[in-house]
Amino acid sequence: MNRVVITGFGVTSPIGNDEETFLNSLKTANNGIGPITSFDAEETGVTLAGEVKDFPLEKYFVKKDTKRMEKYSLYAIYATLEAMAMSGINTEEENMERFGVLIGSGIGGLGTTQDQVIKMDHKGPARVSPMFVPLAIVNMAAGNVALRIGAKGICYSPVSACASGTHSIGEAFRNIKHGYSDVIVAGGAESCINEIGIAGFAALTALSTATDPDQASIPFDKKRTGFVMGEGAGVLVLESLEHAQARGANILGEVVGYGATCDAYHMTSPSPDGNGAARAITEAITEAGISPTDVDYVNAHGTSTQANEKAESKAIVAALSKDTYVSSTKSMTGHLLGGAGGVEAVATLMALQHQFIPPTANVTELDEEVEANIVVNEAKDAKVNYAVSNSLGFGGHNAVICLKRWED
Question: Which residue in the list 167, 243, 301, 397 is annotated as catalytic?
Answer without folding.
Answer: 301
